[in-house]
Amino acid sequence: MIAGDLLQQFYNLTDTLIVGKFIGSGALAAVGSAYSLMTFLISVFLGLSMGAGVLFSIELGKENMHRLRSAILHAFFLIMAITAVINVLLFLVTDPLLHFLSVPAEIYSYMKAYLIIIFAGLMATSLYNFFACLLRSVGNSVIPLVFLGVSALMNIGLDLLFVPVFQWGIEGAAIATVIAQYVSGIGILLYFLTKCRRFIPKAEERRFDAGVLRDILGLSCMTCVQQSCMNFGILLVQRLVDSFGTITMAAFAAGVKIDTFAYLPVQDFGNAFSIFISQNCGAGKVDRQRKGFRAATLISVIFSVLISLLVVVFAGPLMRIFIRADETAVLASGIRYLHIEGAFYMGIGCLFLLYGFYRGIGRPGISVILTVVSLGTRVVLAYLLAPVIGEAGIWMAVPIGWFLADVIGYGWYFLKKSNWFPCARVM
């Protein structure tokens, strides 16, 4: 799962690297700001798929294949329909979205051109995420990695062809990303249809089942809210960052890419932990859940501390991967970002673990509460501190929000742990 998501990040990372090096900081700022918006939008589809994946894992743990296949069918049509509606709406409200993000006039055209093309790939992204979550929930994490590997390499090759060779500018980077997304989305769909036939609903399972749909909505909607709230916080922070101008925007764009790679392993560890918890929940193995919680916390803390140390020590070289050496103001801003936020990845590592645990036992509402606490703290503090101490106030607000949510999440666990481990009654 970690390797797969690292490859998925190559879509936007490749755009960032090539755009920053071959077009300039203005285009880099546009791609970075678009990345925050797209992360928020994708989190909606991913949250729906992750929530459905919890139900898939529980039914697999119970060995209830009839209900599992019915759930797959209901979840697929629900998520694809939501994706289509959102996609149409996005094309209609592109300009209001850009105004909401306070995009500076000098990069407005860059960002709009990039987004219009990127929006065309949302259906492919949703398709890939659905089948990736499905395959992972039943124990197959290799195939999603294979398709991502192929599409990531294609994205890199097309970026290098479209931007420096064909000189299609920022539109070329977007086109390369969309083509690669459709390769992974359609590819994994065809794999499922040909190689996973035991999970394809039979004729008698293709009927509407209100109970199955209710269970999917109960898990998926809350997980979707949790995921989208988390990324909406980033979007609001992005709006504040945009108000500081192109230098801060470009620094934040590069910093977020480094963040993504730095704490992506613990994010995926939390997602894998959720599958572990939900499968054991369905099988009634309470002791394995308790042992898993302790072991997972220890692993997340150790990994996060080591990654923070590396990011803080090598902040300069990391920023220079994305920023030209002559853009000293952008480099200085980005290094300051990594020294402040990058030092506290332990907070987000533990928070991802808590999200996975509460989702895995069928109580995603608690994950939503933790997300709202983290989101509310970081946004309120960022908007309070930024006018006083500048951009550093934005960077400081984020880890404070992480740690406050951690305190509540672990406190809740230890107060209520005798009641947490049996599956919530959503089945």
UniProtKB/TrEMBL annotation:
Q: How does it sit in the membrane?
A: Multi-pass membrane protein
Location of this chain's protein in the cell:
Cell membrane
CC terms in the record's Gene Ontology section? plasma membrane
Family annotation (CDD domains): MATE_yoeA_like
Q: Name one GO molecular function term.
A: antiporter activity
Q: Where is this protein primarily located?
A: membrane
Transmembrane domains' residue ranges: 34-58, 70-93, 113-135, 142-166, 172-193, 295-317, 337-358, 365-386, 392-415
For this UniProt record, the keywords arranged alphabetically read as follows: Antiport, Cell membrane, Ion transport, Membrane, Transmembrane, Transmembrane helix, Transport
**Coiled coil spans:** none
Q: Which InterPro entries match?
A: MATE_fam (IPR002528), MATE_MdtK (IPR050222), MdtK-like (IPR048279)
Give a GO biological-process term. monoatomic ion transport
- Physiological role: Multidrug efflux pump.
The record ties this protein, via NCBIfam families, to: matE
- Similarity remark: Belongs to the multi antimicrobial extrusion (MATE) (TC 2.A.66.1) family.
Q: What is this protein called?
A: Probable multidrug resistance protein NorM
Query: Mind giving the lineage of the organism this protein is from?
Result: Bacteria, Bacillati, Bacillota, Clostridia, Lachnospirales
